[in-house]
Specification:
two-stranded parallel ribbon; single chain; 237 residues; six-stranded mixed beta sheet; alpha/beta; binds zinc ion; Hypothetical Protein Tm841, Chain: A,domain 3
């Protein structure tokens, strides 16, 4: 069998070992993107399809920053997905807006919950909550000492009592012209995020756990628990 000399030359020109592709960052899908919500609810999550964030606004930005940092440290996309899943599950977040309908439209809670205009993320799901500045202030005061505690005020006209509640000393408070208020199409929103702190040492320890964890045979993401809830229909709301 004779090889075409032109083909042989072409082979010689080709690098003997192609450059390994650079690890791609994990693609993040906004918590407010409809297709992301549907994929999440129906268990259509796969690492190739990106990671559907469950926290919008300040929570999503915090997780995006964490994902960027982990990627820079050489984490693979599937490992970053496992990290985000673990941090999201342990975070708490509150969104106060003047319209409960807007929070419902955004899929943060179902219908038939009255006019309450506060959504609370806790134990891995969004639920309606009463608008209670005192409770928010207590959370901000307790959270700032032991976790990442950040608040955000977006749009214009947020009630002063609610802003003051999340703006306790030690809470990083950001003021945004657009932010979540624009995404939810409401005049203003006030957000409070309490997320587990991940100093360098604990992030490295977590990476070791994630790297040695068994991988879900369906979506390929390392599982820190006994089974994968990312790709199970209805497990992630
Ligand atoms: Zn899975």
């Amino acid at each position: 069998m004779t090889a075409d000399p032109v083909d042989v030359l072409r082979l010689l020109e080709a690098p003997t070992r192609p450059e390994p592709p650079a690890a791609r960052p994990l693609r993040l899908i906004s918590a407010l993107a409809t297709h992301g919500r549907v994929a999440r609810a129906e268990g259509l999550a796969g690492v190739g399809a990106g990671y559907e964030l469950r926290l919008p606004g300040i929570g999503g930005r915090y997780l995006a920053g964490l994902a960027g940092h982990a990627h820079e440290q050489g984490w693979r996309a599937a490992e970053v997905a496992a990290l985000l899943d673990a941090v999201e599950g342990r975070a708490s977040m509150w969104i106060v807006s003047p319209s409960a309908a807007a929070l419902r439209r955004a899929g943060l809670f179902g219908s038939g919950v009255g006019r309450k205009a506060c959504a609370r993320w806790s134990a891995g799901c969004w639920r309606p909550a009463p608008v209670d500045p005192d409770a928010l202030a207590r959370v901000a005061a307790a959270g700032r000492a032991r976790a990442v505690c950040a608040g955000a005020v977006s749009g214009a006209g947020a009630p002063r009592r609610i802003v003051e509640a999340v703006g306790a000393d030690g809470v990083q408070l950001g003021w945004l012209d657009g932010g979540l208020a624009v995404s939810l199409r409401v005049p203003w929103t006030v957000e409070l995020l309490v997320a587990p702190a991940l100093p360098g040492g604990s992030l490295m320890a977590l990476r070791e756990r994630i790297a040695s964890a068994p991988r879900c045979s369906w979506c390929g993401v390392p599982m820190l628990g006994p089974d994968c809830r990312r790709c199970l229909p209805g497990a992630r709301t």
